[in-house]
Design goal:
Largest sheet: 4 strands, antiparallel
Number of domains: 1
Order of helices and strands: EHHEEHHE
Number of helices: 4
Radius of gyration: 13 Å
Oligomer: single chain
Shape: globular
């Protein structure tokens, strides 16, 4: 199991969330098996998203997907704030 963590700032959480929710099909096509959104308690525009995949190749491809990149732009993601980690479960 592979987890993709994306930590980023958004211009407005409400706008971002509408766009995020609208691309459920892209997540399914990209191999996301589960996901959750976490929000900083002191800064609602600081968002961490967790997406789970069956393998690292799927996570990497999803991260580079043009539809995902376009949605991030529409959602007001601050490009310079994006930090992505692809993590494998151990033990």
């Amino acid at each position: 199991m592979t987890t993709l963590i994306v930590d980023h700032e958004v211009a407005d959480y409400g706008t971002w969330r509408q766009v995020y929710d609208s691309v459920e099909g892209a997540r399914a096509r990209g191999g996301v098996t589960s996901h959750r959104v976490l929000q900083d308690v002191d800064n609602p525009n600081h968002v961490v998203v967790e997406h789970v995949f069956s393998d690292a190749a799927s996570a990497g491809a999803f991260l580079e997907d043009a539809e995902l990149r376009a949605a991030m732009g529409r959602g007001g993601v601050v490009p310079s704030s994006v930090r992505a980690l692809v993590l494998e479960e151990t033990g």
